[in-house]
Amino acid sequence: MVGRWLIYALGGGMGHLTRASALARAASQRGHGVVLLINTPFAPGLPLEDVLGSRVEVLRLSPALGREGVGQVVARCLKDLRPDLFVVDTFPRGLGGELVPLLPKMRARKVLVHRDVNPAYVKKFGLARAVDAFDLLLVPGEDAPFASHPRAVRTAPWLLLRAGELLSREAARARLNVRPGDARPLVAVMGCGTSEEVAEAGDIAARLEAALGSRARVRWLMPPGADADSAGLPEASLASRAVVWPALAVLPGVDVLVGAGGYNTVQEARATGTPFVALARPRLYDRQAVRLRPEELAGSVEALVARAAQLASGRPVRGPCLYLSGTEDAVTLIERTVLSA
Amino acid sequence: MSAFVCQENVGFLFSHACGGDAALACMRCAKPLCAAHLRSVGGESLCAQCAREHGDSTEEQHAADEDDPSYYYNDYGYYGAASAGSSWGRGSSHDTNDFTEADGESLRREDDASFEEDMGGS
């Protein structure tokens, strides 16, 4: 049965947006109509409609909206759209707690995308009670506080692209402006949690370029739109930049990925077997240090640069490419939940 | 920093890791600890934080409310042995609770009061 889905993916950075986009894309390819609700400051620059297709309608809320404004818009969306299915990413109470009074009134089936969150938030806001409002908890690829809930189901990590949609190594390197025949290792530095982290990734790329010289190529990956903010940066840090989204598409051409410990970056690096080193960035809800493995985690920018340079100076060995996305399974599980209503 | 160095935070004015030789690890969070920073609580050797939480939970158990959903999920926010069988996202040798000094910065906002107030704070 084809239905109308509303996916709530409010939250800063690219994480909620990317994970929800993976689900939206898979659902739309099964024929469902999907509305994706986002408020990240990165949204205006991203070619979401190109990647998600015509069956996904993207509603971009202003990131300037405060708690009250978000609550009003979300209530209005639910009233006007009257979805058959309401999917909420990460926040069972809503980003501002606005879903608490709305969920019991909804006829739609309710699904929570449940990933790791700050235990202080879990305890302080009684999430144990909040998750009970949902018909299904999907746990995509990593542990989560209520992964043992009777209605929770684990899936593989959700990836935005199917394996066949990734670029070949040659095409990916060409996309990142590496000339054909240049066999030097390619280091990609990515920062996309905040505009400050995007800029800092440029600085890290410049430091890696200086450290590695001609032994490797270094590219600073930026999401579209973020490049407009880089006008004031030093020329050296602009030399190697590549505007690309989703970065997952070019990972087959990357020999060392340098980034942070957000959900998507980590899962994409592991799925493609890309050697990876990252900082655990501070977040209000996410715990990047918990997600990163010891061999992936750098304790400082200096350690990050040193580790990445070391990896690139040797012959970077890609890990096993066990590319497996849980989005198809997630759509199937959701469809069963809707049918069981 | 080596995993065998005590990672208990010390310092009155400036918080920093102890740095002494670790004798054991906290039995709940696996934080490496020197002998001076081990606390024996209810037969367990714990770090200061886990010892505090043990005290809290002991008090709470006396007033456990079966109507509260959290009564059934008493391991929330912490993935102990029960999560070892997870199929996804786990390295074979990685204990998720094996913190390093890098974690301090990323977890500094755990007690942040801006939950549900900061609409861009995710």
Please tell me about this protein's structure:
The complex is a heterodimer of chains A (341) and B (122). With 341 residues, chain A is α/β, with parallel strands linked by helices. Chain A folds into 2 domains: 4-158 and 325-339, Rossmann fold; 163-313, Rossmann fold (3-Layer(aba) Sandwich). Helices cover 33% and strands 18% of the residues of chain A. In chain A, the strands form 2 sheets. Chain A has a 7-stranded parallel beta sheet. Chain A has a 6-stranded parallel beta sheet with strand order 10-9-8-11-12-13, with helices on both faces. In chain A, strand 9, helix 8 (235-238) and strand 10 (241-243) form a beta-alpha-beta unit. In chain A, helix 1 crosses helix 12 and helix 7 crosses helix 11. The longest helix of chain A is centred in the middle third of the chain and has 18 residues, at 195-212. Chain A starts with a strand and ends with a helix. Chain B starts with 8 loop residues before the first strand and ends in a 16-residue tail after the last helix. Chain B has a domain at 1-64. Mean pLDDT of chain B is 63; it is low at 62-66, 68-74, 76-87 and 89-94. In chain B, the strands form 3 sheets. Chain B has a two-stranded antiparallel ribbon. Chain B has a two-stranded antiparallel ribbon with strand order 3-4. With 122 residues, chain B is α+β, with helices and mostly antiparallel strands. Chain B is built from 2 helices and 6 strands, in the order E-E-E-E-E-E-H-H. The chains are: A alpha/beta (341), B alpha+beta (122). Chains A and B meet through helix 4, helix 5, helix 10 and strand 13 of A and helix 2 of B.
